[in-house]
Protein: Major facilitator superfamily (MFS) profile domain-containing protein
Organism: Citrus sinensis
Amino acid sequence: METCSEEKKMITEPLLINKNPKGGIRTLPFIIANEAFERMASTGFMPNMILYLCREYNMKITEGTNVLFFWSAASNFLPILGAFLADSYVGRYAMIGFGCITCLLGMVLLWLTTIFPHARPLACDYTLRDSCESATGSQLMLLYLAFGLMSLGGGGIRSSSLAFGADQLEKGDGIKSKSEGALKSYFSWYYVSVSASSMVAVTFIVYIQDNLGWKVGFGIPAAIM
């Protein structure tokens, strides 16, 4: 039979305790790669999107520019909302997961607009813009839904990805498990990967869109995501 001193020792020093519930350094490459692929996919849509709206949706340049402006504004604002929800309610891991799924749905939906002809207005001569048929309300709603899902997903990922990686270097008591050098190295590689992925997006993916068409050019970012 256990003595009182042994029972007291078990209470004060439990045998089953997770001293480091965080993932540690081994999780950082996955977090960095996830953000790099998301940034590559999202950035790959932007440069040629005005051409897609004008040529495939028969929009005027001013109208297409306004659409892209609101899309960009939503993409830059929603990370603020995502950070608030992650810190106050759902947590960073859940927010990143939600963002990845939502962003993927938006990209797949945008890619499907290049596949199904009924998702776009009838094609016409680009030089005869005034005589072209405008997109219907349902076609525009499908397009705007894709943009909205991509912005919403990007807001979930970008608001929590950097901080979530830094969290992996902490123990449960909030003390850093590694030196400050590891944290600085993580930040450096994070920003390097984001910059490199953006460069690949505005060169390689844009080249594919110009030479292989919208189906392949939009399908590759969706596959990357």
Remarks:
- Residues 8-18 have pLDDT under 50 and may be disordered.
